[in-house]
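user: can you give me the structure for this one chain? tokens are fine.
assistant: on it. calling the predictor now.
[tool input]
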Amino acid sequence: MIRTLLARAGLVATAACAVTLLTAAPAAAHGADAPNGTDYRTRVTGVTPARPGLEVRVIEAGARLELTNRTGRPIEVIGYSGEPYLRVGPDGVYENSRSPATYLNRTIAGDTTLPADADPAAPPSWRRIDDGTTVRWHDQRALWQESAPPAAVRAAPDREHRVRDWTVPLRDGADPAVIGGTLDWVPPPDAYTWWAVSIVGMLAVGALGLLAAAAPAGARALAALGGLLVVGGAVAVVYPVGRELDAGAQGVGGVLVGLLGGQLWSLLTGLGAFAAGAYALARRPAADFAVALAGACLALFAGVTNAAVFARSIAPVPWPAEIARIMIAVTLLTGAGATAAGVLRLHAASRTPAQTPSPTRT
């Protein structure tokens, strides 16, 4: 029985990994290439001259800019060669199919091949892409595109550095305007410390599986594992919600659409861990199997996939990066520890001889 459950757990985990890899490509193809963390802090300092009703902010840990136009007038974003690139107004959002920026800004790396008709000197050819008043785009002027950090950073990597002040030109009718901002290098944290804390926590949680399941201490250990999975599941749900908010999602509907489109596995993992924790707290049959499987999924799909924040100073969430690192450490130690504890309990149960009834005397 135990071997059958473990075999099924392996099949489920393998299938989940395969589906994750298969669904990752379409998401990236649609521009969902927000980093899991970065050491470059992008900020918007304002629009000059000020335009009441025009708001610009940084989203996705600096990967994209977001412009919202409530002025009642069309505002144009100017491309890299001085050509009209985007137009945002009361009638929706338009992109100029002749602008090279339309294609270069589709990925954060700016490595899209330009079509033959991409000509910044040609008259604009506007194509409507949204009916709202908000547009989001990658902009190379606000990013550091080189693989190596700047020379000043290489000389003193333990200090914060101003990389550059950047500008993105706008046009309000015939009047020019400019989005101003800054790009800074922020020293990353010590990833080894965070991994050490996570591993020690994993071992501590996993040690709960050494307590005999039939003893009162074993029952309390199962309840503790259930409580930890509930906490880990909640964290695994909150973190992708934060990523969607940082990516510009508006309202409950916008967050749900983003979760279902790009954060589905993390969301399902969190909900599954929460359910498995409640199952263990209720001391249901096969609770050890549920704890082991839910813990493995939690560690893999909500912990390891977001562990880049251990080595990056800027996290893609709307709260401090230190809190983001604590959340991922909790997810990892809870998930991996619960897996180890569940497997130990299953192994102990498989070695316990079945109780056979004593023969009755006649």
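assistant: here you go. The beta strands are 40-48, 54-59, 64-69, 75-78, 84-89, 92-96, 126-130, 134-137, 161-172, 175-185. The longest strand covers residues 161-172.
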